[in-house]
Amino acid sequence: MTQPVVTRIAPSPTGTMHIGTARTALFNWLFARRHSGRFLLRVEDTDRERSTPEATQTILAGLEWLGLDHDGDVVSQFDNAPRHAEVAHAMLASGHAYRCFSSQSEIEAFREAARAEGRSTLFQSPWRDVPEADHPDAPSVIRLKAPREGQTVIADAVQGNVTFRNDQLDDMVLLRSDGTPTYMLAVVVDDHDMGVTHVIRGDDHLNNAARQAQIFDGMGWAQPVWAHIPLIHGADGKKLSKRHGATGVEEYAEMGFPAQALRNYLARLGWSHGDDEFFTDAQAREWFDLEGIGRAPARLDLKKLENLSGQHISAMADADVVAATLEWNDRVGGAPLDAERLARAVPVVKDACRTLPQVVERAAFVLRDRPVTPDDNAAKSLDSVSRGILHELTPHLRNASWTRDVLETVVGDLARAKDLGLGKLAAPLRAALAGRTATPSVFDMMLVLGREETLARLEDAAAPSSGD
């Protein structure tokens, strides 16, 4: 490509950052980064009643958490309103737009008559060809003078050529009577002024592309490459909504999915590279193209996300798992975690975890202090016989080399001496070391806890109870 690639994400700051917006942002980011281009952020904040600084901050925080860095400053669409109006007047001067003085009641009367006669309800303004000399001194809007014959063809990089009959496209309003621009005009002007070369967005905007293309043409501007991607649906095939579960990026962060896992999953949600499911950020940037985007809606599958998340946690450097877990814990307001203890446990627990909360759960044995009080299930394995065996085991461990092979040998020898399977001895060991039945390997726990802590916990558990 000779012209540098410029993509953009243009969310409206009216609520949370939807997972669909995040996927669109990711596709734009990947495409720009693959082609050494620029990825821009524009906040479409023209809806002043619904746009809030808090929602804007939510979008920025969501992009930051996802690791999707944008180039340059954040552009405010509202701040560009004078430029939008300037373009509307330029189109008026060139004959590609006209002033319309029709009132809302007149427009509605036109539509009611059209419905009654079975005609198209697309408003056809009587002012389209009225000379300026005959204009009244009254409020007016500026409308696009759209072609009424022929076709508008959108050459879409995902959908292929999509054809619209021009008699099905109305003369849309560009500038309202109060001088404020409409969304349709603002988007085109901003995309042109920002140098956007590729508009990658949801296919719910495909109809908008036909109308926006007419503004580009009216101004003599080159159209961007259009790429309209299918929307995300729930598992039932219906448009994603709250009834399907989490829809906001921050919800997935709070659920404890690492950002790179969500990036991987979202990249595969509507785009493919052969049969590859798990891949790194570097691979995604190298592989991503528009040709790999399918035309069918993607379906959100939490099980697949969990599976990918587990693969990413397993593949992450131990220090990165610790950092991500601490960040998640802070995000959800969890009790403070001892980072040093967590770091000792991560190597032996991460492979069994699909989310960051599971890392904390699996590492609970090292995060808790003595005395370890077993839960009800674990306590059942600490009867007087089991406590006696633990008491007998302690001196053997005290003099043993603290390696896995030696620890396994010492415990195995005692189990055989007592004519027990290793599993029978593992249960009271789990209760003593972790206070629960579901834990990492007892030998992993011993190595993580170290000799002194392990022996102290075993001695605590072996001590006679009041019921003995």
TrEMBL record:
ATP binds at K242. It catalyses: tRNA(Glu) + L-glutamate + ATP = L-glutamyl-tRNA(Glu) + AMP + diphosphate. It is found in: Cytoplasm. GO terms for biological process: glutamyl-tRNA aminoacylation. It comes from the Bacteria. InterPro entries: aa-tRNA-synth_I_cd-bd, aa-tRNA-synth_I_codon-bd_sub2, aa-tRNA-synth_I_CS, aa_tRNA-synth_I_cd-bd_sf, Glu-tRNA-ligase_bac/mito, Glu/Gln-tRNA-synth, Glu/Gln-tRNA-synth_Ib_cat-dom, GluQ/Sye. Its EC number is 6.1.1.17. Residues 337-461 form the Aminoacyl-tRNA synthetase class I anticodon-binding domain. Residues 5-306 form the Glutamyl/glutaminyl-tRNA synthetase class Ib catalytic domain. GO terms for cellular component: cytosol. Keywords: Aminoacyl-tRNA synthetase, ATP-binding, Cytoplasm, Ligase, Nucleotide-binding, Protein biosynthesis. Belongs to the class-I aminoacyl-tRNA synthetase family. Glutamate--tRNA ligase type 1 subfamily. NCBIfam families: gltX_bact (TIGR00464). Catalyzes the attachment of glutamate to tRNA(Glu) in a two-step reaction: glutamate is first activated by ATP to form Glu-AMP and then transferred to the acceptor end of tRNA(Glu). Monomer. This is Glutamate--tRNA ligase. It comes from Jannaschia pohangensis. The gene is gltX.
